[in-house]
Amino acid sequence: MKRKIEDLEDVKLLVNSFYARVRQDELLADIFNSVIGDKWDEHLPKMYRFWQTVLLGEHTYFGSPFLPHAKLPVEEQHFARWLSLFEETLDTHFEGEKAEEARWRARRMAEMFMHKIAYYRNSNTKPIL
Fold first, then answer.
1. 8 A C-beta contact, residue 93 and residue 3
2. Phi, psi for 122 (deg, rounded to 5)
């Protein structure tokens, strides 16, 4: 049965389920695992805080989500797969307004990251820390 995203436990279900898919995906697993390595126990709580802040309005995430991604070896196909896995995760577990907001925000984030990464690759500038 699908549920609404209402609290931190729902955010954890979203994040854990999504990253379980990413870690098994033949296109994305090597990229994520090479960067995160054996530090998934540190990475996942950051993702909980990010989505808790974005979806629940509980400001627990502080930082710049783009910077850790700026130099990743990713192209449009990686973003498409990331988004597909995220939306599959939403469709499997959730429904309602917050699920649709998560879908919308993930699409905007993928689009923005893709364009920013391309910009920095094609210019002589670096992201501001």
1. yes
2. -95, 5
Q: How far apart are CA 17 and CA 90, in angstroms?
A: 9
Cβ-contact 40, 34 below 8 angstroms = no
Return the CATH number at 104.
Answer: 1.10.490.10
Cα atoms in the 13 Å half-sphere on the side-chain side of 93: 22
Mean pLDDT, 10 residues at a time, the chain of 129 residues: 97 98 96 90 95 96 75 84 97 98 96 82 68
Enter the pTM of the model: 0.89
State the residue range of the domain holding 20. Answer: 8-121
- The answer to whether residue 127 sits within a structural domain is no
Residue 129 in domain: no
User: Domain for residue 16, yes or no?
Assistant: yes
The per-residue pLDDT for 85 is 98
The answer as to whether 1 is a domain residue is no
